[in-house]
From TrEMBL:
<dbReference type="InterPro" id="IPR009057">
    <property type="entry name" value="Homeodomain-like_sf"/>
</dbReference>
<dbReference type="InterPro" id="IPR004111">
    <property type="entry name" value="Repressor_TetR_C"/>
</dbReference>
<dbReference type="InterPro" id="IPR036271">
    <property type="entry name" value="Tet_transcr_reg_TetR-rel_C_sf"/>
</dbReference>
<keyword id="KW-0805">Transcription regulation</keyword>
<feature type="DNA-binding region" description="H-T-H motif">
    <location>
        <begin position="50"/>
        <end position="69"/>
    </location>
</feature>
<dbReference type="InterPro" id="IPR001647">
    <property type="entry name" value="HTH_TetR"/>
</dbReference>
<keyword id="KW-0238">DNA-binding</keyword>
<dbReference type="GO" id="GO:0003677">
    <property type="term" value="F:DNA binding"/>
</dbReference>
<dbReference type="GO" id="GO:0045892">
    <property type="term" value="P:negative regulation of DNA-templated transcription"/>
</dbReference>
<feature type="region of interest" description="Disordered">
    <location>
        <begin position="1"/>
        <end position="20"/>
    </location>
</feature>
<protein>
    <submittedName>
        <fullName>Regulatory protein TetR</fullName>
    </submittedName>
</protein>
<dbReference type="Pfam" id="PF02909">
    <property type="entry name" value="TetR_C_1"/>
</dbReference>
<feature type="domain" description="HTH tetR-type">
    <location>
        <begin position="27"/>
        <end position="87"/>
    </location>
</feature>
<keyword id="KW-0804">Transcription</keyword>
Length: 257
């Protein structure tokens, strides 16, 4: 999303003609607006964000904010862009460590998600609400970098895109589950009671009740690594099969989503 304005003044004292004092506005720019919007979402959730409330927090007439975002949807896209700007996708040398790069990227995304849990649903859904070529640049950089990483590792373009989709599908599902996980009684020490599983009939849900301890001891980082192990194993198998089949197999491409 391109900025709809560069900067707007805020009140600051300066000398006017005849030696009098006038009020001059200090700069208000798009980033300042987005940072404040993110702060509000972090504190109170997406539902609490409105142009009126944002304007009040910035000390501005809400109508003036529309030069930076034409609607709340556009404002939310800007927040997603702001948050994803912190996601780094390092590049491997000659594709040797592509799996390590994917793991680092996954943990970087998870760290961002844990820092901004209310933004996670936006990170997952907002880009998909816009045609690929019209999405904010910051949302496309991870796609470009990961596809480039996998092609450099030896995947054909179509296989690299498939790998990207598998990776992001798993990663998005994982962080959504982790940040939205809730317990019935956080102060309860008994796992069945803590998770509310005692309410489930033992005859109908024997497996869930038996897994109470494992469910209560959920470790997001460890679960992420276990899932990545499975994903990387599958991608390695795909890569090996593609390399064995020769150049004729490694052709083509497809649209992203």
């Amino acid at each position: 999303m391109e900025a709809r304005g560069t900067a707007e003044g805020d009140e600051a004292a300066s000398s006017g003609a005849g030696g009098g004092r006038t009020l001059r506005r200090a700069a208000l720019d798009r980033r300042t607006v987005l940072v404040e919007a993110l702060r509000m979402i972090d504190a109170d959730g997406v539902e609490a964000l409105s142009m009126r409330r944002l304007g009040r927090a910035l000390g501005r007439d809400p109508m003036r904010l529309y030069r930076f975002a034409a609607s709340k949807d556009e404002l939310l896209d800007g927040v997603v862009e702001l948050v994803l700007a912190d996601l780094q996708v390092p590049r491997a040398v000659d594709g040797a460590d592509w799996d390590v790069v994917l793991r680092r990227c996954a943990h970087s995304f998870r760290a961002i998600a844990l820092a901004h849990p209310h933004v996670v649903p936006l990170l997952v859904t907002r880009p998909l609400a816009t045609p690929l070529g019209l999405r904010p640049i910051a949302t496309l950089r991870p796609l470009e970098a990961i596809v480039d990483l996998l092609v450099g590792a030896g995947f054909d373009p179509k296989g690299a895109l498939h790998g990207y989709r598998l990776f992001t599908g798993f990663l998005h599902g994982h962080v959504l589950n982790e940040v939205q996980e809730q317990v019935a009684d956080p102060d309860e020490t008994d796992d069945l009671l803590r998770l509310g599983l005692h309410r489930l009939p033992a005859r109908d849900f024997p497996r869930l009740r038996a897994l109470a301890h494992e469910l209560a001891a959920y470790d997001g980082a460890a679960e992420l690594d276990e899932g990545l192990d499975i994903l990387v194993t599958g991608l390695r198998h795909q890569l090996s099969a593609g390399l064995r089949s020769g150049p004729a197999h490694r052709e083509g491409g497809a649209g992203a989503s």
